[in-house]
Write a structure and sequence with these properties.
Helix content is about 40%, strand content about 0%. By secondary structure, it is an all-alpha fold.
Length: about 150
Amino acid sequence: MPKIKTSRTKRPPEGWDDIEPKLQEFEAKMREAENEPHEDKRKSQSTWKITQIHHQRSRYVHDLFYKRKAISRELYDYLLKHRYADANLIAKWKKPGYEKLCCLQCIQATDTNYGTTCICRVPKSQLEEGRVVECTKCGCRGCSSKD
């Protein structure tokens, strides 16, 4: 006879109650962005707001753990496991040159026409004077660490 699986929900680690309201706020913003009408936008523009909120939520968790040291390793691992933050994006932020990276799509060379990274990764000092740069994937206006 097969074993019957019961749901054993594990309680969140200590410190969860302190950050839960902010994470719920991000969740509400995400739902709002998902339900936002996108008839007047280009196809790529419809996901920009979602990508930006995802970045903000991941940066919030990153700053809590690495910069302010306000949460424990156990809570940080819990947040990554339950996808409150993007572990791959945070891993890139720890590498030199990627401290301000907006999304992982901007560094994937396979998605571009010329096999290079996104235009938002080019430092503003190397662009034409007065040129406004806007990423087609996430709407970023420059996430190079040399700006």
